[in-house]
Amino acid sequence: MKIERYTPEKQSAWNAHVESARNSHFMHKRNYMDYHADRFADHSLIFTEENGEYLAILPMSEQEKTLHSHQGLTFGGLILGHSVRSGAILEMFALLNTYASERGFSRIVYKAMPYIYHQAPTGEDEYALFRQGARLFRVDISTTVDFAYPLPFSSLRSRGAKKALKAGIAVRRSEDFSAFHGILSRILQDKYEARVTHSEQELVMLASRFPDNIKLFGAYAGEEMVAGVIIFETATVAHAQYIGASDAGREAGALDLIFSTLIQETFKHKRYFDFGISTEDAGKTLNENLIAQKEGFGGRGMTHKFYEINPA
Hints:
Layout: E1 2-5, H1 11-20, H2 30-33, E2 41-42, E3 45-48, E4 54-58, E5 60-63, E6 66-69, E7 79-80, H3 86-102, E8 107-111, H4 124-131, E9 135-146, H5 155-166, E10 170-174, H6 177-192, H7 200-209, E11 214-221, E12 224-233, E13 237-245, H8 247-252, H9 254-266, E14 272-277, E15 279-280, E16 285-286, H10 288-295, E17 300-309
Helix pairs in contact: 3-4, 5-9
């Protein structure tokens, strides 16, 4: 087995591996990762057989003396081919340790991919991390609806959806990223004096590159968008990447209607619907109001785990 650094001429082979892997996500394709190449120093790695066959890829970036599971991505970890077994994954971590040490890196940060994105069981990496003496230093909690074990909506969320219907709110897929970005921007500016992670232009560009994966759903009062959700869709998960409502939308219960529609109709064929994390301060603080709202749609806890290794 060999470990080598990703270079642009490997883009096609990298993307092909993402498509065929047992725990893949479209955001690990290079035409997603590379849109913010100017912000992060890419140091992605590839594990191959001696004949060059891909076994796994590992999206990474570097900062000072740390190798990070790519800082521009929510999570990463080893993206594995179906034929790779536990012994080979132990070997991968040994190679990674040596690779990092020989290049002067004193720390590796590994963001494990949540199990809901696994198309087949893929927990070998966390066992290998244990064997490497990795330290679990951060845990975030996300709220996920499991369609194999559906739970009822709370009465509050159901009433909100009915209220929106009574007010004439309609939910439909939309291409009006400008209107939705305006809603998000006002929320973040008013509440947190912050900006949306993706600019309007970036959202439009990424949606054009991944039209089957990045979808905006809006709640409309007549022709005015009063709430919206951007879904990141994978083989197993519909994930709410961005959520926002105007004052009028909140008053009308528009988000309750959107999520009712998405969970009970649009994405009911998926294995999971994920609302994203409700933790702050690197997992140390739980936003209890936020998670209660998400749990009201029948979601329960699923974790994002962060590990660190100090290469020997």
